[in-house]
Amino acid sequence: MSLHDYSLRRYRKGVLPVTGMALLTAGAAVVCKVRWDLLYKGLGSGLVYFKNLLTPDVGAFSELLKPALETVLIALVGTFLGTLAALLFGLAAASNVAPPWLRQSVRFLLGLERALPEVVILLFLVAAFGLGPFAGVLSLVIGAVGMLGKLFADAIEEVDPVSIESIQAVGASKVQVMYYGVLLQVLPTVVSYALFRFELSIRLSVVLGAVGAGGIGHELYRSFALLDFHRACTALLLVLVLVVVSERISVYLRSRVRQKGRPR
Amino acid sequence: MKARLFLQRATVSSLLALILLASFVYMGVNPGMLFTEFHYVVDLAGSMSPPHFSLLWMDKTIAFSVLETLSMAFLGTLAGGMLAVGCALLTAKDTMPYPWIRGIARFMVSLVRVIPSLVMVLIFVVTVGLGAFAGMLTLVLSTMGTFGQLFTEVIEATEKAPAEAIFSVGATRWQVIRFGILPQVLPSLTANFFYAFDVNVRSAVGLGIFGGGGVGFQLFLAMRVLHYRDAFALICVIVLLIVLTEKLSDGLRRRLIGRGRHRQHTKLH
User: Fold this and answer.
1) How far lies B13's CA from each of A180, B8, B16, in Å?
2) Which of A193, B115, B249, B267 lies most in the core, judged by the most C-beta atoms within 10 Å?
3) Interface test with B, best of A1, A30, A32 (most B CBs within 10 A)
4) Rounded distance, CA A219 to CA A57, Å?
5) Distance CA A85, CA A148 (A)
6) CA distance A206 to A246
7) Which residue intervals define the domain ABC transmembrane type-1 in the entry (chain B) (predicted)?
């Protein structure tokens, strides 16, 4: 396609998409009220704000450790219980385990549920149960079911039917087939996804804290609101440590699981 | 052998149970609350229904806020994705020969990646004021962080032979990128742009709650003033919005590259 090629094909493949994208971008920019002058003017105050964030309040460190632990625990418990619940939902949504009507309805529910961000779920749970870690754990469990339920169902559907049949052939009961034929087969996948979800849960748990689940996210948000930047900086540093360390742990354990789960 | 296996499993499961119990005690959470306090959920559901759907066409701001959320996600994906491609070119071994530039770029991307978007949006709200612009800027940065690293991996996973062949006949570095590497990564990059849009619509709703504008902010306001019936209608809109975006993004991606393969890569790389 040379520069002097004014064919219809060139028009369709080149000019139209570019013009369309430009129009869309311009429209979106108007809707979002993108104003670079505002950003330019505000950059000064933003930078001052950011600079204040660079000096931590060392004294606050020890009193922030407890909320940080709470954030980790919310994520840990939420992930664990969420994985267990998601496994049940995954079984109910797999075609080789559940009847079609159950599979369809559970998949539909999971799809709806996945569409709700955890923060939105928490807004409602806080309205029902009040502020505190209970609502946080519950919203993480619900979020994990939405995300992991479908993944587990897909993994269960991919289980080799031959291994299920051979277990049935030696006279295993229904429960035994479920355990040896299905659950043990998908265990490496389940553990690997659960570890991945834990990494996500830590991040989410921080954000949820700001909405009302408590923990380090709450401290961070409150310090911001009270303009106590040095405390906010300490909280931010702790959050960074949590995020990075949980990611490292999750990646390391996942690589171990993948090696172990590899067929011999 | 069997006894050892049993012992191992018993140890692991009792340890897990103990940790779970200890965390419940430490947090002061009683899991039984789910059943003893369930009537609050029923009360809430009662005060939420029937959803106040007429709000959606009576109140022009709601329709506009949906548009705002979509625009935020679109601009965040476009600008953030382009920044991510730029960063990836600076970070990948195939495209950037100088280790120190690679190191700096890598550090920048991972720094942006670990800063929670909650903190970013709080800073941007101070900088440009409450609203969709602040949310959009946050999305730009978070997209750059997440997808910058992914694109680096995509570039480093390309076939080396075409690039070397082009280089060996005397192409400049830019020509090597343009003709040896870009054609290989383009399908994956485009597919990831669609995926990023899907992710960003979700985060745009969440960011709204912290002052990022859009339909999330409207939901937050409705919950704040206890207009639960309005909130329920908004929830329906949000679910519809996210489900449709997911379907659209999945469909376009599937047309670009094979089914399912791609998402797994993004989720579990």
Assistant:
1) 18, 9, 5
2) A193
3) A32
4) 13
5) 9
6) 13
7) 66-249
DSSP A144: H
Which of B198, B230, B195, B64 shows the shortest CA–CA distance to B132?
B64
DSSP letter at A60 equals: G
Question: By residue range, what is the domain housing residue B85?
Answer: 54-258
Domains of chain A: 3-50 (no CATH), 58-260 (1.10.3720.10)
Structural domains counted in chain B: 1
Cβ–Cβ gap B124/A138 under 8 Å: no
Burial category of A156 from C-beta neighbours within 10 Å (exposed 0-12, middle 13-18, buried 19 and up): buried
Classify the phi-psi angles of A214: left when phi > 0, otherwise alpha if psi is within -120 to 50, otherwise beta: left
Question: Residue B120 and residue B124: Cα distance in Å, rounded?
Answer: 6
- Between helix B182-207 and helix B215-224 the angle, nearest 10°, is 20
Task: Tell me the per-residue pLDDT of A191-208, one tens digit each, with 9 for 90 and over.
Answer: 999 999 999 999 999 989
Residue B2 lies in a domain: no
Q: What is the DSSP letter of B259?
A: T
User: How many angstroms from the chain centroid is the CA of residue A28?
Assistant: 27
Work out how many CB contacts closer than 8 A connect A with B.
165
DSSP per position, A73-114: HHHHHHHHHHHHHHHHHHHHT-TTTS-HHHHHHHHHHHHHHH
- ipTM value: 0.81
Distance between CA atoms of residues B89 and B106, nearest Å: 11
Q: How many residues does chain B have?
A: 269
Q: How far apart are CA B151 and CA A232, in angstroms?
A: 32
Contact criterion met (CB < 8 Å) for A115 and B238 = yes
Give CA–CA dist A158/B110, Å, rounded.
35
CA-to-CA dists, residue B50 to A112, B231, B251, angstroms: 19, 11, 33
- Residue B104 included in any domain: yes
User: What's the pTM value of the predicted model, to 2 decimals?
Assistant: 0.84
pLDDT digits (tens, 9 = 90+) for A75-123: 999 999 999 999 999 999 988 888 889 999 999 999 888 888 888 889 8
Do B243 and A112 count as a contact with CB atoms less than 8 A apart?
Answer: yes
The enclosing domain of B135 has a CATH number of 1.10.3720.10
